[in-house]
Each structure stands twice: as C-alpha cells, then as structure tokens.
Amino acid sequence: MYPRKASSPPRIAVGPVVQISDGAVQTSGCSVVVRAEGGSETAGGGTVSYGASSGFVYYTPTQAETNYTAFAVVAYKSGCIPAGVTVVTTASSTAGQAVCADSQKVDVNTIKTQTVTATAGFSFDGLTTLIGRFTGITSLANWLRGLFRKDAMDATAKSEVNSGGGAYDESTDSQEAIRDTAPLGSAMRGTDGANTIAPDNAGIAAIKAKTDNLPANPAAVGSQMDLVNAPNATALAAIGAKVEAMVLDDGDATALLAAIAAKVEEFLVNEGDATATIAAIATACNAAIAAGTVGTNVAAVKAKTDNLPADPASNTQVNTRLAATAYTAPANADVAAIKAKTDNLPADPASNTQVNTRLAATAYTDPDNAGIAAAYAAASAAESAADDAASAATAAAAAAGSAASAAAAAQEAAEAIPAPPSEEEINDVLTAAHGAGSWQTGGETGSGAYTVTVTVTDDAEPPEPLENAKVRYSNGLESYLNSTDASGQCTFNVDAATWSVAATKANYRYGGGQHVVAADGSKTIVMTPYAAPTSDDPDLVGCYGVTRTESGEREGGVDITIELLTPAAPTGQYRRTAIEVTSDANGDWSVDLASGLYRCQRTDGPTGWRQVTVPEAESYEFPSL
Fold first, then answer.
1. What CATH architecture does domain 541-621 belong to?
2. CA dihedral 411, 414, 416, 418 (to 10 degrees)
3. Which of 70, 241, 407, 426 has a beta carbon 3.0–4.6 Å from 37's, enabling a disulfide?
4. Exposed (0-12), middle (13-18) or buried (19+): which is 610, by Cβ within 10 Å?
C-alpha cells in the first residue's frame, strides 16, 4: 500500500510517453498533473525523472499531494500519447504498512472473552462421535502393529483390543498370520466344499477324445510329415500309376535311352573312334618327346656331361689334365676381362679365415654339381616337353574333327605328362642332399667384426614385435639374410660400412633404409600393416607382390610377365595369353587371376622364370621379383 501523507513519499512509475508520429519514447520535456480523489487536475509540484533503459516517466509527489485516499498522476507532452496511474493510499504514513479501519479492529483480549455461537443447522455430534472412536486407545501405533504383525503385541494394546469381548491372538489372527496359512483356496473352501464348482467332466472327456487322435509330438522341431505311409501310401501309388501310364512305361524308357545313345554316337564319336583318337594323340606325344626338340636337347646335354670327369674338382684329375698333351693355353684376354670385374669387388669378399673355417667344418659336404645340373636339365626338359605335348595335343585335337572330344582327349594327354618340378620341389631335393639353407648369395648372417641386433615391430601404440619377418643387410656384393624370432629380433655380424636394409613380411610394408655400422649396435625397423587385395569376381584370386633390387630394396616401375601353365580345373574360362603388369612407385603390383599353375618373371629377365601355384583363396602373395 502507498503511504498517505508520508514525509518522504515514494517515487511512482507513471509509464512511457510515446511520440504519435514515429513511436519514439520521450526521455525529456514531459509535464505531470495530479488529480486528487474528488478534485481536479493541478500541475504536479513534485520531481519528474526518466528511466535510462526503459524510458519510463517517474514522479515523486509532494507530501500534500498524497494526503488523499487516492490520487491520479498523468505524464504528458505535446504530440504524444500520455501515460497515467492511479494510486490508492493507506491510513498509515509509513511505507509498506497497512492500517485497518476501526470497524475491522479487535484485540486479543476481546477474542478470548467471546463465546462461540453455533449457527442454525450446525451440530457437534459428528465430531463427538469421531473423538469417541479413539476412546480407550492408549497408543494407536501399538494397536496397528498388533493387528498387522504376528509377533508379540504390546500388552496394553492387546488388553484394549480384547476389552470389548473376544480373545484376539496376533499369532493366528493378524494379517501376517493369515497370509502365512495354507493355500488360500483350501482355506476359503473349507471342508464341506460349499464354495467349490464341480469340473465339467463331460467336456473334458470330449477334448481328450480329440487329442487322443493327435501324434505324440505334433510339432517337434525338425519333424517331418509322413507322406509315404498310410493314409498317403495309396494316394502316392495312384499318382505313380497315372504318371507311368500318361508319360511312358519301362519299355518306352529303355527304347528312348537307346535312341539317345545312338544319336550321340552317330553325331559325335563312337567308342572305336574315341579309342583310336586317344591312342593317336598318345603316339604323337611320345614321338614328339622322343624325336623332337626335347630329345635333341637331352641328347646334347648328355653328350657334354659325358666329357666331364667323374670328379671335376679333384686335384689328381686337374694335375693329370694339365699334364695331358691336349693341354690348351688359357685365354688370357678372358682372364684379363674377369680381373677387371673382380677389381671392383670388396678387398676381402671371402677371407682366408672364413674359407678355411668353412672347409674344415664337419657338416660341410661337397656340392653335387652333377645332380644340380641334372635337376636343372630335367626341369628345362620337362617344361619343353609340356609345351611340345600341348602343341601336339592341339594338333591331334584338330585332326580328330570333334571339338568336344578333342578337348577332352588333349586334356587327358596333357595330364598324362609329368609336370616339371617346381622351385619348392627342387629346393626339397637339394635340402635332402646337402642340408637346409639358401643356395643364393646372402644366406648367412655374416661373420664381420661387429654385431648388429635388429628389432622389427608394427606401427601400433605400443608397438608389437613381428615374428618371422625376413631382414636383409646388403653392401655391394655382400648380402646377408635372417628371420626374426618371437621377440621380433635377429642379429647380423658385419664389418664397418653403410649397409642397405630391407625387410619383408606377409601383409606388412617397409620402405627400406640404411644403417651405418662402425661398432656393435642395434636398429629398429617399423613395418606398416598392409591389407592384401581381393578380387571383386568371386571366381578369381587377388594376387599381389613386390619388385625388388638385387640388394632387397623395393624397386618401382618394373614390368612383370605372367603366363598360365596349367589351370586348376579342366573346365572354365582361362586366359592363355601372357599377362603384363607394372609395379607402382613403391614396387607393389596386383592382378586378378584364376587358380592354377603359373610362371612369372621380370620382363627384363634378370631373375628368370619362377613357377607359382595360385590356390583357390581370396588373395595370394607372389614371391618377390
């Protein structure tokens, strides 16, 4: 309430005064009039102010202007919409305090002496009755506890419960005790069965009669309906009879099959022709192998090897040869040319110590040079024989006249020719005769003055060691190869030099690097995982590989030639023409191939042909080329 005739009247928020033409709120030049209750407007004698943010007009009236039960304040300005407010005052001159009229006032002592008089129709009976309900209850909580729980009830409360008659026993009569009695149905039904309903035995018997006709397990998972035995056997027999009667009987079937066989023999080839064709193909293949290029090459190789001594490296034979009258002076020009090349070799490519140690080793075995030469000659002869046989088979097939029969006969003839030994088979023979190990330069781990420990890991965080990664250290003509153990480590013994380092592992990449060795030390190689490519065609295999230099470093831009030798299956579509692939800048290459036996080489030919078998798989990695 607004105080009446206060010595310092509170400020009144009148409202914004707005310009009619543009709606601008006026923050200066406004006037105020005050109109007391029952009076007329007079110019305001108080103070006018403006809100800095809202633009409201505020008015602080004089004490005399507030000495009314109510008064109005209006703010105005020419050309503007005025704003106004009506203020109702309280009899108190203190702000925030309201004073009641004398007719509404009464003191506490007066209230205490007043007598309550009930109006007409009011009665205290209901209240009296309610209060009477609780008469005789000392503790309502103890009563409720005893009525609900079956443990010992408060003695006073139990006495008050039984005061009206009866013998309440919480162990049997409480709600908890009732809950814990026998099943509710039996307790409610009693012994006379008055509240029970007899079952519909007739209906139950009818249901049982129908279910007796159902199988013991009418819907077990995996069960099958019996369509052969009764009652379907009769129906199936009738259907069979109809089919046989309407289509053909046994005699018709025999006659039809005989006619088909006769037509096949008439239009394709009869058994006699097939036998003659296959025999002719076999004869042609044998003749080609014995009298053709293969036989000539084998005879030429044998003629040369017959001139070799039984032991080409024996000192006795060498001395005898030198003393023979057929001795021929050495080709000094060739020796000089060889010397010019060997001058570029390291100062000690095979030190005396290493040679003597190697010759004195108990596990050393003289190489079977004749066996190696024979194995290589056999492989070359078998490969040429396969090519000649394929050509002979093709010619014989063309002569046979039937494309289908000729293809089958040619395939049988090709399969009858033994396949040339693979690189793995040759290695197995050499290993059995001379022990395991690489037969190429760099199969050892070196015997230099310094020990280098190499650790190979992936690029994970933390890095994980990579087992069975192949690491190669190369320097000029020296090249050493080793494989990592379960800890991802391997060691080399090399001399002081700058070594080229290469590493390979299936599904991993390493770009190569260098290691300057001047003392015992270590090197860490980090390899990046590489997802093997797969083919979009489910019938093809995603094949891939890497081209490398002779020192084992990746080499990009290398052309590769791949040729199919033998397909994995006798039927299907295969590409017989040579496939050309070029490795990318990192030396990686890939191509989709059907499974089978292939041979591959660098097109420039420094590594020669290598045979690989592409399995039936999503992907396959070729050996480095």
1. Sandwich (2.60)
2. -150
3. 70
4. middle
Name the residue ranges covered by the structural domains of the chain: 2-102, 140-179, 289-313+366-423, 438-529, 541-621
User: Domain spanning 438-529: which CATH class is it, in words?
Assistant: mainly beta
pTM here is 0.28
pLDDT value for 159: 86
* Cβ burial, residue 452 (10 Å; 0-12/13-18/19+): buried
Q: How far apart are CA 287 and CA 192, in angstroms?
A: 113
Provide CB contacts within 8 A for 82, sequence distance 6+: 17, 74, 75, 76
Q: Convert 250-271 to b/e letters by CB count within 10 Å (16 or more is b).
A: eeeeeeeeeeeeeeeeeeebee
Which pLDDT does position 417 carry in this prediction? Answer: 52
**131-135, 379-383, 536-540: which is most confident:** 536-540
Topology agreement, domain 438-529 and domain 541-621: yes
Task: Give the pairing type, strands 619-621 and 541-546.
Answer: parallel
- Report angle CA 330, 332, 333 to the nearest 5 degrees: 135
Region of residue 468 (left: phi > 0; alpha: psi -120 to 50; beta: else): left
1: Cα within 13 Å, side-chain hemisphere? 18
Angle, CA 569 vertex, CA 564 and CA 575 arms, to 5°: 35
Give per-residue pLDDT as tens, 320-345: 555 556 667 778 888 888 888 887 77
Please return the burial class of 71, using the count of CB atoms within 10 Å of its CB with bins 0-12, 13-18 and 19+: buried
What tokens were used for 128?
Answer: 């009296």
The C-alpha atoms of residue 327 and residue 8 are separated, in whole angstroms, by 146
Which phi-psi region, left, alpha or beta, contains residue 52 (left: φ > 0; alpha: ψ -120 to 50)? alpha
The backbone torsions φ and ψ at residue 103, rounded to the nearest 5 degrees and listed phi first, read: -65, -20
> Residue 296 corresponds to which tokens in the numbers above?
């000539």
Residue 378: closest CA among 426, 415, 337, 339: 426
User: Which of 530, 533, 477 lies closest to 503 in space, CA to CA?
Assistant: 530
